Amino acid sequence: MTIRLGGIIAGLAITLVLVLWSLLPGVYNLAFGPPSEKQPSAAFYEHGHGPEGGFSFNGAFGKWDYAQLQRGYQVYKEVCSACHSLKFVSFRNLKQLGYTDAEVEAEAKSWTVPGIDPATGEVNTRLALPTDTFPSPYPNAIAAAAANNNAVPPDLSLMTKARHDGSNYVYDLLTGYGEADPAKAAKVGFETPDGLYFNKHFPNVNIAMPQPLSDDQVTYADGTKSTTAQMSKDVAAFLTWTAEPSLIHRKQMGWFVIGFLLFATTLAFLSYKQIWAGLKPKKK
């Protein structure tokens, strides 16, 4: 009996310690604020809201703007592909953007991918095929870090799913570069270290990626003016498609499913009324 009581007391004591251990940090942060609020960079962070007017695929009735997706692909190819890969996207997937088979094949041949010489077995490069995925600009992570101030550029295939409110996140990040207010920076003791760049929409404000886009950097084939905001919106839409190519199809299927469920519910109710129409409930 004594041993059992001692075990119960010991178990309760351990449980109490674990509960206090888990609650104390939260109580401390509630009382004194989380550590991030005390960082000078927190005074400069601004939560973005995406492009004015939003994206064409937003909402229950959203649709892809294929001209925008093609422009976004052009921005990725001419700017972003220098550092970032799309390892989960094949060239043949571009057909979903409105390109013909011939255009997809020609587009694939404008890229080179790693290959193997069948005669010697040595690694070489070859022109891409529609079945190939977009190549990485670096042979490995070590080379990527060496070329980018020890920061490895992430793959962009699923970026808009990997970040909260991903489409707006990409747009806000690309348009958030600038300079911190000098007076405010001096007041809170904030500075951007060498090798980093100020971005008001990046969570900790200082980011390793230099500003990738500037006005008139890309010449759009359809004549659209290539402002920084326009290119940012286009490439954000394109990366939304790479992450969720079936997004619009799922929305359309959702409406079909809702309609079917409403029809099935109505049919079940009418069947119920027909089956029990001749029966009266018993009086109590």
Explain this structure:
The protein is mainly alpha-helical and about 280 residues long. About 45% of the residues lie in helices and about 5% in strands. It contains 9 helices and 4 strands, in the order αααββααααββαα. Helix 6 runs antiparallel to helix 8. The radius of gyration is 28 Å and the shape is extended. The mean pLDDT is about 90.
How do the helices and strands line up, and which of them pair or pack?
Elements: H1 2-32, H2 66-78, H3 101-109, E1 112-116, E2 123-127, H4 141-147, H5 159-162, H6 166-174, H7 182-188, E3 197-198, E4 206-207, H8 228-243, H9 247-275
Antiparallel strand pairs: 1-2, 3-4
Helix pairs in contact: 2-8, 6-8
List keywords for this structure.
284 residues; mainly alpha; Cytochrome Bc1 Complex, Chain D, domain 2; two-stranded antiparallel ribbon; 5% strand
What's the Cα radius of gyration? 28 Å
Question: N- to C-terminal separation?
Answer: 57 Å
What is the spatial order of strands in the main beta sheet? 1-2
What is the CATH class of the domain at 45-51 and 60-89 and 133-248? Mainly Alpha
Summarize the structure.
By secondary structure, this protein is mainly alpha-helical. It has helices spanning 2-32, 66-78, 101-109, 141-147, 159-162, 166-174, 182-188, 228-243, 247-275; strands at 112-116, 123-127, 197-198, 206-207.
